[in-house]
Design a protein that fits this description.
The chain is an alpha+beta fold and 161 residues long. The protein has five helices and seven strands; from the N terminus they run H-E-E-H-E-H-E-E-E-E-H-H. The chain has helices at 2-6, 26-32, 63-70, 116-137, 141-160; strands spanning 11-16, 21-24, 48-51, 79-82, 88-93, 96-99, 105-114. Strands 1, 2, 3, 4, 5, 6 and 7 form a seven-stranded antiparallel sheet that branches. Helix 4 runs antiparallel to helix 5. The longest helix is centred in the C-terminal third of the chain and has 22 residues, at 116-137. The protein is elongated and about 70 Å long. It starts with a helix and ends with a helix.
Length: 161
């Protein structure tokens, strides 16, 4: 199973029931800009975490910590990882607890999905919508046609993503 996870292009890691990282795939290194410390890192493989609003998010309050402490999958929470070089990546985590046959918590698995392309596509769709709305309000046909062409180009680029 772990060799299969090693082949995934997305960052995946596993923790024990105390939140200590027991495994990470190679994609975690590229994603986080560091080599996570198996057996030492707790809750998360990132160097630093922030909320989408830019507030610092301590690892002990990150989505993986919540998933383990509350014994439930956490969904719909976006975050920002800061790498040691200062670069940042917006992502969605999908921490999911792992239970044994008796229902006891064994640990958890998390996949970190980079949302940069999704955010870029959303911005392009928004720009296209603005161009189309503006085209409907101008009285000059040449300007309206130009705005419609711009909207179509934004939409094409968004679809390409």
């Amino acid at each position: 199973l772990l060799s299969a996870l090693d082949q995934l292009p997305a960052a995946v890691y596993v923790t024990d029931r105390d939140g200590v990282v027991t495994y990470h795939n190679p994609a975690c290194i590229a994603f986080t800009g560091r080599k996570p410390a198996v057996g030492k890192d707790r809750w998360c493989v990132t160097w630093k975490l922030y909320t989408e609003d830019g507030a610092f998010l301590p690892h002990e309050k990150c989505p993986m910590a919540v998933a383990i402490l509350e014994k439930r999958a956490v969904r719909g929470v976006a975050a920002v990882a800061e790498r040691p070089d200062g670069s940042r990546v917006n992502f969605m985590p999908y921490p999911t607890p792992i239970f044994d046959a008796e229902g006891d918590l064994l640990g958890a698995v998390n996949i970190l999905i980079d949302t940069a392309e999704t955010r870029r596509a959303e911005l392009l769709w928004s720009q296209a919508s603005k161009c189309r709305r503006l085209a409907m309000t101008v009285g000059d046909q040449q300007t309206a046609d130009t705005l419609a062409l711009m909207a179509a180009e934004y939409e094409r680029k968004a679809c390409d993503i």
